[in-house]
Specification:
Blueprint: H1 2-9, H2 29-38, H3 46-58, H4 61-77, E1 79-80, E2 87-88, E3 102-109, H5 112-119, E4 126-130, H6 149-154, E5 166-169, H7 175-188, E6 194-197, H8 213-221, E7 224-225
Helix pairs in contact: 2-3
Length: about 230
């Protein structure tokens, strides 16, 4: 009854006959706090936050408790891989620890979620390196703010391990990603390693995260040496 009343409250007519928008003081404090926190998530506005909040209120208590445990566990158990900087719950991560991966090739990406776009192709079998960003001078992000030094360390020969022969630069095809790729190419080529750039099967100005499997596969196949 309480939930139904709250849901109807957002559609109550005003004096002009039109529906009045919600105000945060229309909600009980715990509900208002939840809606406010949900609005901070990417792509979640006021109405979406309200729908999610009411959904959680209607759900079985165990469902809400499971969500709370998952959120808490995410912060407590996730860390950065000490080798490639990927987000993981084990160290090294699943890719770095897999002996079946080709250790002679490293694909450099901006963010951890870019890895899954590449993995969806089921064609790439090398390792990864996550920069956690791209060079963006207007935002105050330079090479020193990225995980570039640890990439250079991985190029050192390690007894019992094959040397790295190719670095694939898979940064986003926007101005920041292109600047980052150009900087890394200038830095890496004098070290004697092959440096290639993913092909432009991905439209310029978009992000790798939103590429489908076919587009991502064509981009990998069409990579070029810099």
């Amino acid at each position: 009854m309480l939930i139904a009343t709250l849901e109807k409250k957002g559609n109550r007519p005003g004096r002009s006959g039109a529906a009045e928008p919600f105000r945060m003081d229309d909600f009980a404090a715990p509900l208002a706090q939840l809606i406010d926190e949900l609005k901070r998530l990417p792509g979640i506005g006021q109405k979406s936050a309200q729908r999610i909040a009411f959904h959680l209120l209607r759900a079985e208590p165990e469902r809400a408790a499971a969500l709370a445990r998952a959120l808490a566990g995410l912060r407590e158990n996730m860390r950065f891989c000490s080798v490639c900087n990927n987000l993981t719950d084990i160290d090294p991560c699943q890719f770095c620890a897999d002996p079946r991966r080709n250790r002679e090739v490293i694909c450099v990406v901006e963010e951890p979620n870019n890895i899954f776009s590449i993995e969806k192709t089921r064609e790439y079998n090398g390792l990864y390196h996550v920069l956690h960003g791209a060079i963006a001078p207007l935002q105050g992000v330079g090479p020193d703010q990225l995980r570039i030094h640890s990439l250079l360390l991985r190029l050192r020969e390690t007894p019992g391990q094959p040397p790295v022969r190719e670095i694939i630069l898979a940064t986003d095809p926007d101005s920041e990603g292109e600047a980052t790729a150009a900087y890394l190419a200038r830095l890496l080529k004098p070290l004697g390693v092959k440096v290639s750039r993913i092909g432009m099967g991905i439209p310029v100005g978009t992000e790798i995260e939103f590429a489908d499997e076919v587009t991502m596969l064509k981009a990998l196949e069409g990579r070029r040496e810099l």
